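In line with agreed milestones, the collection of sequences with tokenised folds has grown. One record among many is set out beneath this paragraph:
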Amino acid sequence: MAYWLFKSEPECYSYADLERDGSTGWNGVRNFQARNFLRDSVRVGDGVLYYHSNAAPPAVAGIAEVVEAGHPDPTAFDPESEEYDPKSKPDAPTWFQVTIKPVRPVDPPLSLAMLREVASLAGMELLRKGSRLSVQPVTDAEWKAVLDLAGIKPAKKSRKG
């Protein structure tokens, strides 16, 4: 299991929207590095910090889980979509998405300023100057630190056998 931070502007699609919808395809990603994470690295069962960017204040607003691994982003093929890419074809897709579902809100949300105050998060991609990726890896230690800050106990890993 891996951990990720996904950024969304709340006026476009907020954590409350995800809760209302029950799940969503994380579509519209048009950065190659973020696309590569979605296509090659994000897996079913991975944890997601749902981050509201371009908000006042920007903050971790919820926890989500990946329920469907990387697959072609259908918005790239739709000429009516703002995310349409005429170079991306169904038989040779350029852009990918994963599907996520809500796990629980972070209430109150953890602001960027609060995250910056946690020494163990100093190396977190989100906190690096100039970091703009909409899909970012989060280490196990960073995931635990964010959940601790939010007062959330991590889910116990199931044991098979």
About this structure: The CA atoms of residues 38 and 70 lie 5 Å apart. Helices lie at 15-21, 32-41, 112-116, 140-150. The longest strand covers residues 96-111. Strands lie at 3-8, 24-25, 47-52, 59-72, 96-111, 135-138.
